[in-house]
Amino acid sequence: xxxxxxxxxxxxxxxxxxxxxxxxxxxxxxxxxxxxxxxxxxxxxxxxxxxxxxxxxxxxxxxxxxxxxxxxxxxxxxxxxxxxxxxxxxxxxxxxxxxxxxxxxxxxxxxxxxxxxxxxxxxxxxxxxxxxxxxxxxxxxxxxxxxxxxxxxxxxxxxxxxxxxxxxxxxxxxxxxxxxxxxxxxxxxxxxxxxxxxxxxxxxx
Length: 205
Known about the structure:
Strand content: 15-25%
Shape: globular
Order of helices and strands: EHEHHEEEHEHHEH
Oligomer: single chain
Helix content: 40-55%
Distance between the termini: 11 Å
């Protein structure tokens, strides 16, 4: 199994890069483990207080569960990936079954923040994008998918996203083996990554 970590700021284009990788490889070869699924449950916090939670710092994630399930996949075992609702800020009772594959992609803003997780990765990729581009994508996503107004998104960006990006996400570039500017639009970088993955898979057969 090859474990690939894909990090980058909110709205940087990580999801597009993952999609391009999956599309470029044979069907059924890749499983994607989204870090967003591993937010800590906040159901014990009053609903009016949940919107104040900082989702952009390492403490927001259940690292032990993520590490445990990734190890199970590496051992050839199936897992039940948790699901998380951004509307209620709570972990949901439903889970998503996932089978071990030749390639597992761990994707999220802070996947390089835990040294234990980094050690499990065969290659670490950082998806880079200009701050303005990231903000536009975040506004579009949060208004459509998470029921927020543009004003709410911009306020949260200035209060939380930008300082947390500068504190935790941007410095994580130093851990990357490959930095992809322009996200999913960088066809050259994605082609190089695809060729690397194929080479590793073929070498193990």
